[in-house]
Amino acid sequence: MTVAGMSGVSKRYGDFVALDDVSLGFTENRIHGLLGRNGAGKTTIMQILTGQNFETSGNVEVFGEHPYENARVLRDVCFIKESQKYPDMFAVHHALTAASLVYENWDGELAEELVEEFALPLKRRIRKLSRGQMSTVGIIIGLASRAPLTFFDEPYLGLDAVARHRFYDRLLADYAEHPRTIVLSTHLIDEISDLVEHVTLVEKGRVLLDEDTDELRAGTATVTGPARAVEEFAANHTELHREQLGGLLRVTLSGALPERSPEDLHVEPVSLQQLVVRTTRQATGEQFVGATNEKETHS
Ligand SMILES: Nc1ncnc2c1ncn2[C@@H]1O[C@H](COP(=O)(O)OP(=O)(O)OP(=O)(O)O)[C@@H](O)[C@H]1O
């Protein structure tokens, strides 16, 4: 069941089109990855779904209703973002107390455990916190709120790799015990590729991919071999990427791939990071020649 979605949504700021006919849905009790380059429109999508912004046209529904100024909907929604503002005098414990009053599923014990685990100074004023500590406040609120619909918009800024992985582990463990709908927007695709069950990729205000992670992986492969054999295999598939390696050709393909491939071809899975980069390049018509120009991280 879709708990939050939009269909045919556009968002304009003056002449600028931030969202262009976007249709997507976030399914109940799933971890979703909302991916895309800087300025793609991810935050705008999350703002609209959390009633903090308004679509120019199209339909938006969260728990069956429009979220804007809708207390009934918004009490079940938690939006964690880097730019969260707190009153000047607020210390960390004030922020946690405020959150405990807002979210009816708030788990105070979990919040306490996380404060200890992330070594967060409870009495320190929020404006004195380091960037990573600020992110930790958001992560703790996002997890302990147990809101049926939780958005994390790049929740890790300033956090070191150990703390980020602690967050992913905690998120997964808590989600296993208390399933809910979680939308994670991030640029660190490799780090979350085993976490997200569904991927929505946006680019320049349009949706490029909206698919379950398993299906995406199953429907994509990199095929390497003698050029003619690869060309034959590649016919009738969408080509995301092509590299010539001397006499060999390597292509990344998407679409229903045959279960068996000819013996002279080497077929490898594609990481989510590669898939996202290649799909985005293909959609934007960016051409990269040869392997040396590839600045991708491989997982
Ligand atoms: N209030 C505004 N007025 C004008 N343009 C805006 C406004 N808010 C956002 N935009 C533009 O809309 C586009 C989408 O922005 P958005 O913040 O949704 O991107 P994003 O995918 O979250 O990017 P990032 O990964 O860099 O955070 C950007 O080009 C941004 O500059």
UniProtKB/TrEMBL annotation:
<dbReference type="InterPro" id="IPR027417">
    <property type="entry name" value="P-loop_NTPase"/>
</dbReference>
<keyword id="KW-0547">Nucleotide-binding</keyword>
<dbReference type="InterPro" id="IPR003593">
    <property type="entry name" value="AAA+_ATPase"/>
</dbReference>
<dbReference type="GO" id="GO:0016887">
    <property type="term" value="F:ATP hydrolysis activity"/>
</dbReference>
<protein>
    <submittedName>
        <fullName>ABC-2 type transport system ATP-binding protein</fullName>
    </submittedName>
</protein>
<feature type="domain" description="ABC transporter">
    <location>
        <begin position="4"/>
        <end position="229"/>
    </location>
</feature>
<keyword id="KW-0067">ATP-binding</keyword>
<dbReference type="Pfam" id="PF00005">
    <property type="entry name" value="ABC_tran"/>
</dbReference>
<dbReference type="InterPro" id="IPR051782">
    <property type="entry name" value="ABC_Transporter_VariousFunc"/>
</dbReference>
<keyword id="KW-0813">Transport</keyword>
<dbReference type="GO" id="GO:0005524">
    <property type="term" value="F:ATP binding"/>
</dbReference>
<dbReference type="InterPro" id="IPR003439">
    <property type="entry name" value="ABC_transporter-like_ATP-bd"/>
</dbReference>
